[in-house]
Design brief:
- The protein is an alpha+beta fold.
- It has two domains: about 25 residues, no CATH class; about 120 residues, no CATH class.
- The protein contains three helices and five strands; from the N terminus they run αβββββαα.
- A five-stranded antiparallel β-sheet has the order 1-2-3-5-4, with helices on one face.
- β2 and β3 form a beta hairpin.
- It starts with 6 loop residues before the first helix and ends in a 5-residue tail after the last helix.
Length: about 150
Amino acid sequence: MTEKPTRRLFIQCLLGLTVASAPKLSFAMPRTEDAPWWLFAPARQGSALAGGWQLDHLAPVERGAAVLTLRRGEEVAKVHICAREGAPIGVAHTDALDFVVMDGRDADAPTDVDLARSLSDLARRAGINADAALEGLQSHDQRVARYLAENL
């Protein structure tokens, strides 16, 4: 049986005071079994997008986001599909989803125009195919607070 984590148990585990006797703690977000490819139907893995970008991979929801990988030749773009909370922060968005490019650049740096067009098209399709955020998604801000930016 997994015990609900308390601050005291968490600190004890961090300090190693009662690691052997501490109950099993789980701080991970649930992971969905299947990648939500249906969001982008009729597009699918391998589909061509604007400016030579291609749908390469979509991971199941894990740690509050589904990670979409787009490829153009040797270029790779990792996009975290997060729940939208308030004003959109991603390059593209729907009423329920934010598409956040995670390339390590400053948020104010311009995004490749063809990548932005590709993401806008995918967001349009997702807006048609889903009327709510996926189960297990968190907003980008929630994910940063929970996992720290360097771990995303």
